[in-house]
Structures are given as structure tokens and as C-alpha cells.
TrEMBL record:
Domain of life: Eukaryota
Organism: Verticillium longisporum (Verticillium dahliae var. longisporum)
Positions with biased composition (Acidic residues): 547-570
GO cellular component term of the entry, any: lipid droplet
One Pfam family matching this protein: DUF4484
Polar residues biased stretches: 199-211
Protein name stated in the entry: DUF4484 domain-containing protein
Region (Disordered): 188-211, 392-416, 478-515, 547-582
Compositional bias per record (Basic residues), positions renumbered to this chain: 189-198
InterPro entries: DUF4484, LCHN/Anr2, Lipid_Metab_Assoc_Protein
Boundaries of every DUF4484 domain copy: 438-637
Regions annotated as coiled coil: none
Length: 637
């Protein structure tokens, strides 16, 4: 609401009910693509009764009482003036509430009026149902109702304009929803082009469609702050998301940006469509479930989900209706959830907000149960610096800041910038600032590099560095004119179209993009980068599995040539191929394959990740060949 209006006498804003409906209609008009809502509610804080639903409208069969009050208003909101909260309601709807904490003269209310206006949107329109498109309307409603709670005519008008029809999902065109989020597993038969909900890169692809403007509240705008906040820690988080771990962000209010981080972590860990065709039949969900804001009221749900993860998965579990036990990512302001380490696999503790001019960089703390710390590897650090360098080159070719009309309101800017992501980028490159989150170089790696430099007069080291740089540069290739077009050695499978699912086709559309579309170039490049990194890892592993099986069959055929004809017919290679995976033996993975996956060959955590990746997506065991130097048959490092 405009400040000048806020200062007018109260009588000047008490308009007839007809004009109220017209007022809210004008508010909604600039957003023609509002997703239909299934519920609209107003939550008011009462000193004696707590949070209560003061007004509500919902489609038949949707329960609100005793549920949305707690999901819409996480702990700690009384310390902030306003916030936007995302949540998931009973697995079928995404929720968005706009919270306002406004000073008032009522002593019974402790001189503060706290309300929230929220909606529920069907998840058939994406992992958040495109609920962010309602953010501006809900914020304006919340401000007006905080000034005068009797203006419920605003809610009636908004509900009449935005409510769902009797059976909207089958009848509405779903192209936009399909572009924004896949809701099915990797093994659903392919649908016709334009309606394929398997497209895991869709959350990035939607940014590249000509004519589609990125809303000012779209979570993708938080992708750059996500990298600035976590630094090289984003890579171990990404690996945990690929393994479909339960990832919990413990944070402080406000939670809007943390909810955006939850959304983006889920998007970055999507499995590209082309890769799903080479995965095992029992591979996990194509996406990581985002639960957004959760609290103590969700403990029972989290415990049930943990029990479901212990049960063997079947093909029916790939259905979107049953995602229990498939991993998730969420944020919470309730510290009790962080204390229960049986509820999560990875805990990310966000530091409290700091001023942008703070001298000391404070990083999030990442840990596994029982306090086992998680830090980035030396390879992660080099890759992160390469990524930031590539994004800076994209920034130099990107137009100026978003127009004021597309920017978030000024009153929310401090909440966003008072995070660790607001530190200058120079702090990211400071070795002292990174010591706490990056593992030091191991003695073995140091000895190996020193011996290699001595034996090859430094030539081999430079060759390895160039190959690594080319591999990192290829992940940002074709996404901007300033990005190096170096190509790295890769398998044929990786070059066969996986990049298309990671929005590599943007280059062909670049000439058709408007200025507003082009401003999302860095966000689009980040999504493409991580999708390509995922493709790179899974493709190398798939090649190793194929080569292992091929070598086994060739060995069996050589043995069969020496056997009798009747014996060879009884034990043909085709029949032996039906045997269980436990009889196939471990997959041999060389050090060059590990390097091609973008991992640290010296790091034990990366080796453990490779084993889990092979088991989860290919149901195979992996044996990794070690890297070292032997002198006269004696291993020296």
C-alpha cells in the first residue's frame, strides 16, 4: 500500500462495498495468469485464543480449521513486520500466506495487530502451484485488513474472482503447469509433446519461453542469493538432494527467502528427462519433494514418512499420489525439529541475520545426524569459483536491474539483504573465510601433486588443470556470448541430448527474448548448470555399468565357445542376463570416470557418494580404483 494512503484519516478509506469489489478487481488485473485458488482465509491473532481463523472460504472437502493456522504462521513471526510463507497442505495443495505485524493503539492486543491472509492452490499447477502470483494481491489484502478488519468485502471479492471452478484440473490447459514442475516419476510412459509431465528441467525451461515474464515473486530470483549464501557448500547439498535425502533448513523469521531456497534446491536436483531413460527400474523420484515451511505440528508426518522410507519401493510408488519416503527438503523456525536427528538426514543451520557491512563472514552450518559435519571439497571450491566467474561474465552482458514495477516492494528489501548472501562477492574468494566450510588438501593429494610436478616438470599438472577447467566451462556453454565454448571429454551419452532438458536450447531463442526475459539469464544459467552436472554424473555412471555388463557377457561368450553345443544353449548369455544384480559383481570405476563426474578423487565422502548413487539409481555396487604413485612396485602415495 502506498505510504501516502496509509497516512489518510480512517474515514477516507471506508468505501461502499461495491467500490471495494472494484478496488480488489483493479488490484488483480495486472496479473492475468493467476492460478485458481481452492481456499482463501484470514487468520487473526488473539491474545487469549492465539491464532484463529476469522474468515474463510474453501472448496468442498478441504479442511482448514486446526491446520492452516499453524502452517501459515511459523514461530518467530512476531519479531518481523511482514513475511510471505509457503507450505504444503495435506499433500494436494500449496499454500501461501501474507503476514503483517502492524502497530496499533489497542492495549488488549499488546499494541500490535498481527494477521495473515492466505490461499491454497492445487499442486496440479506445479510444485508450488504458481502460488507466488497471488503474493502481491495477498500482501495488499493483509495491509488493508490490518488497518480495518471489518473490510471482509475485499476477501469476498477476491474469492469470487480467483476461486477454482467445480472441476478445473481436467479441463484447464496444463502447458504452463507442465513447464513449471514435473509431478510424476521417471518411469511413467512418455506423453505427447507439450504435455509431458516428465520434463524435469521444466522449472528452468519456463524462464526461456518467449513471452513468459518472470514474476517479481518467483522463487527463481533467489538463485543467486542461494549461491552467495552457501558458497561451495551448495555442491554437497546438491549431492544430498540427488540421493533424495531428507534436508532440513533451520532458520529464523522471516522465512520467505528460506522457502525460496527450498524451492530452488528441489529444482536444481531434478533429473533431466534424457537421463531417466538410462536409469534403473527402481530409481527414485525424478524430483525432490519440497515441503517448504514446517513446524512441530508436522512431527508425526515426518515420522510416518521416515517409516515409509524403510519399506521396499514398488512401481506403484512412482505415482505422485504416493511420494511417502522419497526424501524431501523443508525449512523450519522450530529448533526442536533440529534437535530430533531421526527426522532428517542433513541439517542446515542458518545463521541469524547480519548487516551487509559486517566484517566477518558467517556461513551456514551443514551436518548429518549425530553432529557429523559436512564441508565442501577442494574440487567443490574450484568448481564454485569457476561457476561464479562464468556467471559474472553473463552479468556483464545482462541489462540493468529489473524495472521498479517488477521488483519486490522496498519494505521487503532489508529482509532479503540481511542474510549471509548479502556479503560482497570478494568474501567468497577469501581463503580465510572458506576455511570453516572447505576441507583442507589431504596429505596424500599434496604428495601426489608434488611428485607429479617433479616427475613431469609441471606439465602433467597443467594438463589436469586445463582438462578440469574445460569440464567446468562446458557446464555453462551456449548460455551466454561471454561464456567460453570449451568442450570437455565426455561420453557419447552425455552429448546425445541431455543438455536440451537443461534448457540448452536457450541459445536458439536468444534473439526472440525481450529485455525482461533476458534479465533472468543468470538464473536460467544456474538451473542449466546443475542439470548438466546431474546429467554428467549419471551418464558417466551409466556408461560404467554398461561397460561392466558388456565385459561380463564377452567373457561368458568366450567360455561358451569351448563348451558343447547343448550346454551353450542351456546357458546362453541372454538367459544369464536375467540373473539377479547380485550376481553381476561390482562395477569398476576408474579415477578418470570419477574426475569426469566432477568429484574429488582424494575425498572419501565423494567416494561414498558414488557408491550410494550407483546403488540408488542403478542397483549396483561400485569399486573405485584408487589414485596414487608406485615406485618399483611400492605404493608411495
Amino acid at each position: 500500500m502506498d505510504p501516502s494512503r496509509r497516512g489518510q484519516p480512517r474515514l477516507s478509506v471506508r468505501l461502499p462495498s461495491v467500490n471495494l469489489a472494484s478496488d480488489i478487481s483493479n488490484t488483480v488485473a495486472p496479473l492475468p495468469d493467476l492460478p485458481p485458488i481452492s481456499a482463501l482465509f484470514l487468520i487473526d491473532f488473539d491474545v487469549k485464543a492465539g491464532y484463529t481463523i476469522a474468515w474463510k472460504q474453501a472448496a468442498p472437502g478441504i479442511e482448514l480449521e486446526g491446520l492452516v493456522e499453524y502452517k501459515s504462521l511459523p514461530s518467530g513471526l512476531h519479531t518481523v513486520s511482514d513475511d510471505l510463507i509457503y507450505f504444503v497442505h495435506q499433500g494436494a495443495h500449496a499454500g501461501l500466506s501474507a503476514f503483517v505485524n502492524m502497530p496499533c493503539d489497542e492495549e488488549d492486543a499488546r499494541n500490535a495487530r498481527m494477521i495473515a491472509v492466505g490461499v491454497l492452490v492445487p499442486l496440479s499447477y506445479g510444485r508450488l502451484g504458481r502460488a507466488w502470483r497471488h503474493a502481491d494481491g495477498l500482501k495488499e489484502l493483509a495491509v488493508k485488513l490490518a488497518e480495518d478488519r471489518k473490510r471482509t468485502g475485499l476477501l469476498e471479492a477476491y474469492w469470487s474472482k480467483a476461486k477454482s471452478q467445480e472441476d478445473p484440473v481436467p479441463d484447464l490447459p496444463r502447458t504452463d503447469a507442465l513447464l513449471e514442475s514435473p509431478l510424476v516419476g521417471a518411469h511413467t510412459p512418455k506423453l505427447k509433446q507439450g504435455h509431458n509431465r516428465n520434463r524435469s528441467a521444466s522449472d528452468g525451461t519456463v524462464l526461456s519461453q518467449p513471452g513468459n515474464r518472470l514474476s517479481s515473486h518467483h522463487p527463481a530470483w533467489s538463485l543467486v542469493p542461494l549461491l552467495d549464501t552457501f558458497g561451495p557448500l551448495i555442491f554437497p547439498i546438491h549431492r544430498a538432494a540427488l540421493l533424495r535425502k531428507r534436508i532440513l533448513l533451520s532458520c529464523h523469521a522471516p522465512v520467505h527467502e528460506m522457502c525460496n531456497f527450498v524451492y530452488n534446491i528441489s529444482v536444481l536436483s531434478n533429473i533431466p528427462l534424457s537421463v531417466t531413460e538410462i536409469l534403473g527400474s527402481d530409481s527414485p523420484s525424478q524430483r525432490l519433494r519440497p515441503l517448504f515451511s514446517i513446524g512441530v505440528h508436522d512431527i508425526n508426518f515426518l515420522q510416518e514418512d521416515f517409516e515409509a522410507s524403510k519399506r521396499p519401493r514398488t512401481k506403484t510408488d512412482d505415482n505422485v499420489a504416493n511420494e511417502a519416503g522419497t526424501g524431501w527438503v523443508a525449512c523450519t523456525t522450530d529448533s526442536i525439529l533440529a534437535m530430533k536427528d531421526t527426522l532428517w538426514d542433513m541439517l542446515i543451520t542458518m545463521p541469524p541475520p547480519y548487516a551487509p557491512n559486517a566484517k566477518e563472514r558467517v556461513w551456514p552450518t551443514v551436518e548429518c545426524p549425530q553432529g557429523v559435519p559436512v564441508r565442501a571439497t577442494q574440487r567443490d571450491l574450484r568448481r564454485f569459483r569457476a561457476l561464479k566467474g562464468g556467471l559474472s561474465r553473463l552479468k556483464t552482458t545482462t541489462p540493468g536491474p529489473r524495472p521498479a514495477a517488477e521488483s519486490p516492494p522496498a519494505e521487503h528489501t532489508p529482509d532479503i539483504h540481511l542474510t549471509t548472501g548479502a556479503f560482497p562477492s570478494t568474501g567468497v574468494d577469501s581463503d580465510e573465510a572458506l576455511d570453516k566450510i572447505v576441507e583442507p588438501i589431504s596429505w596424500t593429494a599434496l604428495a601426489y601433486s608434488g611428485f607429479l610436478w617433479w616427475a613431469s616438470a609441471g606439465e602433467q599438472g597443467r594438463s589436469d588443470e586445463q582438462e578440469e577447467a574445460a569440464l567446468d566451462a562446458s557446464l555453462l556453454a551456449d548460455l551466454g556470448p561471454s561464456t567460453p565454448s570449451m568442450s570437455a571429454p565426455s561420453s557419447g551419452r552425455r552429448l546425445s541430448g541431455g543438455m536440451g532438458d537443461s534448457v540448452n536450447s536457450l541459445a536458439g531463442r536468444r534473439a526472440t527474448l525481450s529485455t525482461d526475459d533476458d534479465e533472468a539469464r543468470r538464473e536460467l544459467a544456474i538451473i542449466a548448470y546443475f542439470h548438466r552436472l546431474t546429467t554428467q554424473m549419471l551418464s558417466v555412471m551409466a556408461d560404467a555399468v554398461d561397460n561392466s555388463e558388456q565385459e561380463r557377457y564377452e567373457d561368458d561368450e568366450d567360455e561358451d565357445t569351448d563348451a558343447a553345443v547343448d550346454e551353450s544353449e542351456e546357458s546362453s548369455p541372454l538367459q544369464r542376463g536375467v540373473t539377479g544384480r547380485e550376481e553381476l559383481g561390482p562395477v569398476q570405476l576408474g579415477i578418470h570416470a570419477v574426475e569426469s563426474m566432477g568429484l574429488d578423487v582424494w575425498n572419501g565422502h565423494d567416494a561414498h557418494f558414488v557408491r550410494e548413487l550407483a546403488s540408488l539409481y542403478f542397483d549396483r555396487e561400485v569399486r573405485i580404483e584408487g589414485k596414487g604413485v608406485e615406485v618399483c612396485g611400492v605404493r608411495v602415495c
